[in-house]
Design goal:
Blueprint lengths: L2 E8 L7 H12 L2 E6 L2 E6 L3 H8 L8 E6 L10 H10 L4
Length: 94
């Protein structure tokens, strides 16, 4: 069963693997996703945060940071209509 999560990341050094990291999030971790901000995804996944980190680890180095947290229905934000629609359809369904 998939749950809603937020992944936020910062790849600190030049020449990082942003595209590889994004592809991993979009193709290997997510059942569905919204690239909400430059370094932030909202997504649904059947993986645990620990399992997600293991998949992301090949694209990270010791200077990088990533946080993955399960999200709840209690949220507020200034978002586009497209993003609000995605959130309503994928996050608020439980």
């Amino acid at each position: 069963m998939s749950k809603p999560f937020m992944i936020s990341y910062d790849l600190d050094s030049p020449g990082q693997k942003y595209e590889d990291l994004k592809n991993c999030i979009e193709e290997d971790i997510s059942d569905s996703w919204c690239h909400y901000q430059e370094s932030l995804y909202l997504l649904r996944s059947s993986l645990t945060p620990y399992e997600m980190i293991k998949k992301l680890k090949p694209f990270l180095d010791s200077n990088d940071s990533v946080i993955i947290t399960e999200i709840t229905k209690n949220w507020s934000g200034w978002v586009s209509k497209k993003q609000r629609t995605w959130i309503n359809e994928h996050i608020l369904i439980d």
